[in-house]
Specification:
This protein has 792 residues and is α+β, with helices and mostly antiparallel strands. It contains 14 helices and 47 strands. The radius of gyration is 32 Å and the shape is globular.
């Protein structure tokens, strides 16, 4: 009886959604807004809410509803977070009563679903609800019935309604977390878009079979009711002051449901305050420990761990030896900063690894081996000799081994074990030469020679000559530096500046044939991160490599090419300073533990193609890169692809199309003409891109001798066989995204087969290839590339 009375009391302060739409400021058929109009919004009668376009970034707009009268104009509903509208897009209530968002070319970006008919007008209400209304004042469609991540007072959610968190704080595309009022009456929170089992819920109302509706009333309660109005579960309790305050409840991008209030008369320094001091705790109170899924990364991404901050909000961190996959979103997981331990039994590399310790930390459900009644030393050694072991957790005499990717990571006081993280030892330590006796002998010989006056005279002459040569060489180098600076408009750094910027070349990012790359920061701002490439030795070839790289990339300006900030050429030191690419190489991304999404691979392929097209056709001096491969494609914080490593590049004059040169590049990506003493052209880059493209399509290396099926050892041969047999689907059969986009997969395969033609004249230009990939031109049927292309 008490619960019934409470339900009646709460419902008395709830405004039902079936009330007639307000008729003030109604929008007639034909009304429209344009995205490039700064004042493009429709206001509610009181002016407290607005419906219209919000600029997310240059040339990209979000159709949304927001609080109009507060400083930050907080968005409470959005339509097209996954497909932002370009400048010139229009939202229109058409003459036939449809609400349609279309880009300047007329492509429909969004419209209400399911489609509604019989609309007489639209209105932005003072409740924050945007409605389409019939002639009889019935709401045919409303934003309240299709929420995004926020609910407002007077809003009611029926069974089957889903609320989705956004991707990140400023990215309104759909994120990982959502809650749904199930048809069976249970309110359930999930960390994956398509949960496989109800047990995957990280919070549930436990109202199975009874709950009918979720209500947010004007007094600030969010609660579940039965069909007869009885209150079953108070999601939030207590009373929020509703007079003089705005309210909202939101499933935030970190997966936590929170309620906020904001003074209506606030000054510019006031913001949204959490209302939990007056009601209950967030839902769930600690998401770090609430999520424990057999499938999925947990509260944070793979290879990271979750910990509550001082403000009791969950924070995602990378363990020692790992860095963020996406610098713009800490919840996207981490990747290893080092090369994993080799599983080649002939070289176990146990002397190349050590352990970092973390207390109160665990990655539950990532175990693949458990040993009892052991010591910590035994646990550490067992992980060290096991190439699959990335982390060992030791506690109470039990050792758990875990492998990549790590999931459900958390750091909480209730975790009593110690995490032992296996990381590669820095290889920068110097080794003793052990040539003491030889040095002693040389000293004795030198002493005898110096006793001769003839030898002294000859030595003086030699020193004079060397000093003269040194001054001539220095003048020549200074002249070369001035020429390079004038040609490339790059900055010259001193060796000391770069030594300080890298903290003594402390943090290594990678190494290659000509040198090592270190992480650094210019000036005092941590945002000015750079990558400093130190050339290994001053050989003739490394000197040429340095000049080629500065001259080639210093004259370029394209979003798909790594930017060169400057260089150092001081004494024996040769260093290059680049923008830092936070997500490493395409090789690490493509051939890692988890497969990148098909749509991200599409973006990368098109980005590399556009970058090469620019090098070949749009530079003042056309550039042949000569070493296109996944290791030389770097990924920025948004996983946009940028071509790097121009040390082997060949510059051509504007009217020059071919040149002769020695073999350059990496075996497996080299065009056949390299081995035939033929003049090379930009078509060598086309060939290498073709190999790269099939690797992007299939998410594997071109040559895999360990493949179980012999026909699949050389990828390009298998790709052609599948295309010739009409079975392209086999290439991506384990990739659901790519399989559902099979027309594009076939187009990419055909484009790749044109790229790897043995005859350079048959290969298209990179400009044509870019058009093929983007679908701007038809891709003709490619001929057999010839079996001789499969050089390993």
């Amino acid at each position: 009886m008490a619960s019934v009375m409470l339900g009646i009391l709460l419902l008395l302060v709830t405004l039902p959604l079936s009330a007639k739409a307000q008729t003030n400021s109604n929008l007639t058929l034909g009304s429209s807004l344009t995205a490039d109009d700064r004042s493009s919004s429709w206001l509610s009668p009181s002016g407290e809410f607005a419906f219209g376009f919000r600029r997310m970034r240059r040339g990209a707009h979000l159709l949304a509803v927001w609080f109009e009268k507060i400083e930050d104009q907080t968005i409470v509903w959005s339509a097209n977070g996954d497909d932002l509208a370009p400048d010139g897009s229009k939202i229109q209530l058409t003459a036939d009563g449809r609400l349609v968002l279309a880009d300047p070319n007329g492509r429909e970006l969004w419209s209400p679903s399911p489609t509604v008919t019989g609309v007489a007008y639209a209105a932005m209400l003072d409740t924050g609800n945007f409605v389409l209304v019939s002639q009889n004042y019935v709401n045919l469609w409303e934003t309240f019935s299709q929420p995004t991540d926020t609910i407002l007072p007077t809003q009611q959610l029926d069974q089957g309604t889903t609320v989705n968190a956004r991707y990140s704080e400023m990215n309104y595309s759909t994120g990982r977390f959502h809650f749904i009022l199930q048809d069976d009456g249970n309110l359930e929170f999930y960390a994956t878009p398509t949960p496989s089992d109800p047990s995957d819920a990280y919070w549930a109302s436990n109202t199975l079979g009874t709950s009918f509706r979720l209500i947010f009333n004007q007094s600030g309660q969010v609660y579940l009711t039965a069909m007869n109005g009885t209150v079953l579960n108070l999601v939030t309790s207590g009373t929020v002051p509703n007079s003089g305050f705005y309210q909202r409840a939101i499933l935030e991008y970190d997966g936590v449901f929170r309620q906020y209030i904001h003074p209506k008369t606030a000054n510019s320094s006031s913001g949204w305050a959490m209302a939990w001091s007056m009601v209950s705790s967030p839902v769930p109170p600690n998401i770090c420990t609430s999520i424990s899924q057999n499938i999925g990364p947990g509260a944070c991404g793979f290879n990271s761990y979750c910990a509550l901050g001082d403000d009791q909000r969950p924070r995602c961190h990378c363990p020692p030896g790992y860095t963020l996959l996406d610098s713009t979103n800490e919840m996207n997981g981490c990747r290893q900063d080092f090369i994993p331990q080799s599983c080649d039994g002939s070289r176990p590399e146990t002397d190349q690894f050590t352990f970092q310790y973390m207390l109160n930390t665990n990655w539950p459900l990532s175990d693949y081996e458990r040993s009892v009644v052991q010591t910590e030393d035994w646990c550490r050694e067992a992980c060290l000799v096991d190439c699959f072991c990335a982390v060992a957790i030791f506690g109470d005499g039990i050792c758990w081994k875990k492998k990549i990717p790590l999931s459900n990571g958390r750091m909480v006081p209730s975790e009593i074990g110690k995490a032992l993280l296996k990381v590669r030892i820095n290889n920068s330590t110097s080794k003793s030469t052990g040539n003491g006796n030889k040095n002693s002998t040389l000293i004795i010989i030198g002493s005898v020679l110096l006793s001769s006056s003839v030898f002294v005279n000859l030595l003086l002459l030699l020193i004079t000559y060397l000093i003269y040569r040194s001054f001539r060489s220095r003048d020549y180098k200074l002249s070369r530096l001035v020429q390079i600076n004038q040609a490339t408009c790059t900055q010259t750094f001193t060796y000391q500046e770069l030594q300080e910027a890298t903290d003594g070349f402390k943090e290594e990012l990678g190494r290659g044939a000509f040198g090592t790359v270190y992480k650094g920061v210019l000036g005092s701002k941590e945002a000015n991160f750079v990558a400093v490439k130190v050339l290994a030795t001053r050989t003739g070839e490394s000197e040429k490599e340095f000049e080629r790289e500065v001259n080639a990339i210093g004259q370029t300006n394209h979003k798909n090419l790594v930017q060169l900030h400057g260089f150092c050429s001081e004494g024996q030191h040769r260093l290059l300073v680049y923008e830092l690419m936070s997500n490493g190489t395409l090789a690490d991304f493509l051939f890692g533990a988890s497969r990148p999404s098909w749509y991200k691979r599409i973006e990368i392929a098109c980005g590399v193609a556009r970058g090469l097209s620019y090098l070949h056709d749009d530079c003042t001096r056309h550039i042949i890169h000569c070493d296109i491969k996944p290791q030389n494609i770097l990924l920025d914080g948004s996983l946009a692809a940028k071509i790097s490593d121009f040390g082997l590049a060949k510059l051509l004059m504007g009217n020059q199309t071919r040149t002769t040169t020695g073999v350059r590049g990496t075996r497996g990506y080299l065009a056949p003409e390299w081995f035939r003493n033929m003049p090379i052209s930009s078509k060598v880059d086309v060939y290498s891109f073709g190999i790269l493209l099939v690797e992007l399509i299939c998410c594997r290396k071109n040559y895999e001798p360990e493949a179980e099926i012999e026909a699949q050892i050389v990828l390009v041969d298998w790709v052609y066989d599948c295309y010739h047999d009409g079975s392209v689907l086999k290439l991506v059969e384990s990739d659901e995204e790519a399989s559902s986009d099979i027309k594009r997969v076939r187009r990419f395969v055909m484009t790749a087969l044109w790229c790897i033609q043995e005859d350079p004249a048959l290969r298209p230009t990179m400009k044509k290839i870019t058009q093929m990939l983007e679908g701007a031109v038809e891709v003709p049927v490619p001929p057999d590339p010839s079996s001789s292309i499969s050089s390993k």
